Structure prediction request, 555 residues.
Amino acid sequence: MSAVQLVADDVSFGYPGRPVLDGFDLVVSEGDRIGLVGENGAGKTTLLRVLAGELAPRSGTVRRTGSLAMVAQELPVDDGATVGSVLDASLTGVRAAEQAWLRAAEDPDVGPQLLARAAEQVERLAAWDVDRRLDEGLTRFGAPRDRDVPLAQLSVGERYRVRLACRLAERADVLLLDEPTNHLDSAGVEHLTHELLTRSGALVIVTHDRWLLDALMTAICDLDPAMDGRPALYGATRYADYRFAKEQMLRRWAARFRAERVEAQRLAGRLDTSYENLSDEWRPPKGSDRNRRATHARTTVKAVDRLIERHTERAVAVPQPPPRLRFPDLPSLPSGWEGGPLLDLRAPKVAGRLDLPGVRVEIEPCSRLLVTGGNGAGKSTLLAALAGTVGLDRGVRSLGPGVRVGVLVQDTAAGPGELAALDPVAGEQVTVDDTSLTGFEAYGLLARRLLAAGRLDPAHLVPLAALGLLAEHDLDRPLAQLSVGQRRRFALACVLLPAPHVLLLDEPTNHLSVGLVDDLTQALLATSAAVVVATHDRRMRADLIGWPTLALADR
Prediction:
């Protein structure tokens, strides 16, 4: 029987005024690959930090056996840190194990058992192969390899890929990954999948990637509360099986809740009738005992009170299903449209980033376009060129009169406050950087700025709360307190705010929950707006298989 690597026992954790985990249990053994899913803000990243020991639980315990490594979504950058310093630091443990074995082998006083343990450790870490593994990881993930480059000069995705390659090369006993596919192209995801399938040890991974869930997981842990108010561990190893099991549970929960509401209303009616009888003492027929009838009414009230009390004790909580996306009915054409493409881009070139001689990208009303290519192929630059937010060294961009464009950039959720809507005529972003504002306040401020710039039609304003992207109590919190996924949801709401005729979405699945990714995919298939999507997400690409595709070649 395999040794247990990681155990969370009755763990609770919360931030001031906001509980996150309550009585959480999880056992992860050698060979287990657990996928953590749940709505944005459910506590997935917080749970990883508690499991890693970065956060101390308010109650309960976390026990770890063996070494542990974690790759978080948001990676701090130390002053003076370079790619080389990160690579060297990551291999400290492997180098130490190798040196310990060499010293033991050269010391005649070291006993055979100690020598065997040192050799076993070197064998487990495959220390002789670590440089090749690290170099291969950097190459396959498309990570920078120049050791002298400061981390501060790298993008969020580049820093993540460097750290991911390091963690895989280390071969820790327990590996915790937070949304690792967000910054990988198709080749990088394939390499990651292979490495995780063939590694020993235990794995806990937060991911929205439905394809990765199918390929890797031995079980799926959903942090959204089930009927008993606690997270549920699904033994399903396929995403479709997990979704089916969860939908069945939600239907049973909702059916029980509806039945209890009916029973509660019936008992409340009985109680009201009993109180009415008590207040007029239920005037008896002529010749009957008035005192006896009044006593009977009081007894009835007490009996109904007891029934209601027992019903309340055994009733389930009011179902709190995750907010479901209510995608707005976006317009396909501005008023007075006289025909032609909404947006036209011809032979764009941005030096060092994009060069498409002879290529014309026409965005017609209600049209669809899927943009593919590896990291560095220029997908984000192409969308920025379509949006008009990057200068062209060659080429022409034309936007039809009155056309509103909504742009979701790839790294909107990298830090709080990076929330913007596009002014498509000026080619600028109208931004909100004050993270002390609540979601409602920031959304209102953004609306007023767009309105003042003449880029918002009040008749087509999309109400924030109506989208179902965030719960109202989260919209009343400062933006800085939202999770990465919640900030990404808010950024998507900002894109929809002006009811755009054209949607330009760069890696729209990044940081979003799997349930929302499903809903968003269906919405993009059905919307009347024109849509351009650039994505590495394999399942989304499969879902959009019928769309015209522009494949950018790696530079």
User: Anything to note?
Assistant: The radius of gyration is 29 Å. The longest strand covers residues 4-15. The chain is about 40% helix and 20% strand.
